[in-house]
Specification:
Blueprint (H helix, E strand, L loop, with lengths): L14 H11 L3 E5 L7 H11 L4 E6 L3 H12 L4 E4 L7 H17 L27 E5 L3 H8 L11 E5 L5 H10 L5 E4 L10 E4 L5 E7 L2 E7 L11 H12 L1
Parallel strand pairs: 1-2, 2-3, 4-5, 5-7, 6-7
Antiparallel strand pairs: 8-9
């Protein structure tokens, strides 16, 4: 309510009550706690998506194995985004401020509209000879797990290229994401490890809080992880990965 563009129209103690209130309050967005009595956040989300496919849903979860696992499930089932609850950050005021700083921008991102840019005039460029692809880079943020769950199974078993993925997620969440992707593809999927050789037919997921880069070492290309400054408030960051891929493969 401290943000003048947001109006809180209601609150519910659990998912069952929320389902009753939604048609009365007609909200544009709803936040769901992963852990709720009677009807938890995941069950509520699944029911919500059947009745209100366009309603923006943001999940709250804890930075625990259980919280991460349910959050990945929620994103796969159509949650728009998530916020992790602050833990061990000091006072209640600090916890609330951290929560507010994360939640408000994640709500606003779905309701901020700008005028469409004018189409630039484009001059025809000379034809360039096709280049043989050497690797695939995929960068995803909001909606990423659901998109990956759609894309990755379409890669054939003998896919001839390495795949590098940067998903903007915290530690623990990325390991679970790699496990989930492994369950839907015959390609090898792993959370990337420092010094790991980058090979064709292998999918590498950037670990939370580390930038994922490709680096040439002699005749091989290997994984390089670092905790350099965040870019666009993200670590891992998409731009860091793509720059390194350009440096290695052109």
């Amino acid at each position: 309510t401290e943000d003048p563009s947001i109006e809180v129209v209601g609150a519910a103690p659990n998912g069952a009550v929320a389902m009753q209130l939604i048609p009365q309050l007609n909200p544009d967005a709803i936040t769901l706690d992963v852990e709720m009595p009677e009807m938890d956040g995941l069950e509520t989300l699944i029911r919500l998506r059947k009745l209100y496919p366009a309603l923006v849903v943001i999940m709250f979860s804890t930075l625990t194995a259980r919280g991460a696992e349910v959050t990945i499930d929620a994103l796969t089932h159509g949650a728009n985004d998530y916020v992790t609850k602050a833990a061990n950050v000091g006072s209640l005021d600090q916890s609330l401020e951290k929560l507010r700083s994360e939640l408000v921008p994640k709500i606003r991102q779905f309701f901020t509209f700008s005028e469409a840019p004018r189409r630039p005039a484009v001059a025809a460029a000379p034809f360039r000879k096709a280049v043989t692809p050497r690797a695939v880079g995929i960068a995803v943020s909001t909606g990423g797990p659901a998109a990956l769950a759609s894309i990755i199974p379409q890669l054939p078993p003998a896919f001839p290229l390495p795949v590098l993925i940067t998903q903007h997620m915290p530690p623990l969440f990325t390991r679970l994401l790699a496990d989930r992707l492994q369950a839907i593809t015959t390609l090898k999927v792993s959370e990337a490890v420092q010094g790991q050789k980058i090979e064709s037919g292998h999918i590498y997921v950037a670990p939370g809080d580390y930038h994922l880069k490709a680096a040439r070492r002699g005749v091989h290309v290997q994984v390089e992880l670092d905790q350099g400054p965040p870019e666009n408030s993200c670590r891992p960051a998409a731009d860091v990965m793509f720059r390194s891929m350009h440096d290695v493969w052109g």
